[in-house]
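Order emerges. One example.
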Amino acid sequence: MQNKTEQDRQKFDCSIAATLDTIGDRWTLLILRDLFKGVRRFEDLQKNLGIARNLLSDRLNKLVGHDIVVRIPYQHRPTRHDYRLTSKGLDLSPSLVALMHWGDTWCATEGPPTVLVHGECDTPLQHSVSCPSCAQTVPPKKIRSKSGPGRRHHL
């Protein structure tokens, strides 16, 4: 039997499309944002987001099903869970930072509502794409694409 990731790879020949299918709706992104901020419990997520319980449950189940979030019981009668990001979920951090940076630049008319800082020195973070070979920052107009090993056909 195939797992969800293998099924997604077969369905999409584009990593962006596969990612959007997995996490690409408003509520899922906001749930991820809150999980990164340290909100862990269903009730707290529901209260912070103002999301309907059934929608929150559906999105959390999807994130658990994709191994982005894990449920950890913290109470047994009744059973209640903390929701924690897995390594796969933590890898979404740069993507969420990029979305936040774009929103700060193009949507936040009075300045960023939140500033991300380095926890050790309190310096505001920057988001950029860099080349691992020459360590240079690569601007959007200098980024090119080519077929990778997972490509099944030409689009």
User: Anything to note?
Assistant: The chain has one domain: 4-142. The two ends are 28 Å apart (CA to CA). The chain is about 45% helix and 10% strand.
